[in-house]
Amino acid sequence: MADAKKQIPLRLSARLYAQLAAWAEEDFRSVNGQIEYLLSECVRQRKKNGRPLPESFDEELDLDL
Q1: Buried (b) or exposed (e) across 39-63, using 16+ Cβ within 10 A?
Q2: 28: left (phi over 0), alpha (psi -120 to 50) or beta
Q3: pTM for this structure?
């Protein structure tokens, strides 16, 4: 059962959900698939860089959500 997926509850603002849904539609994915893809990419990037977060992560981001 190495491919078994863990289900977790996730709370998102309506605004963030709408942005993710639009992005997922552009990429022909479900919202769940898009979130899983984005998290996988973040983990892959962390392994590549050897750091969990970029140095500027603590700065407030203007994401226009």
Answers
A1: eeeeeeeeeeeeeeeeeeeeeeeee
A2: left
A3: 0.70
DSSP line for 3-62: T----------HHHHHHHHHHHHHTT--HHHHHHHHHHHHHHHHHHHT-SS-GGGGSPP-
Give the whole-angstrom CA distance, residue 43 versus residue 58: 18
**What's the CA gap between 12 and 23, in Å, rounded?**
15
For 14-54, the pLDDT digits (tens) are 999 999 999 999 999 999 999 999 999 888 888 887 766 66
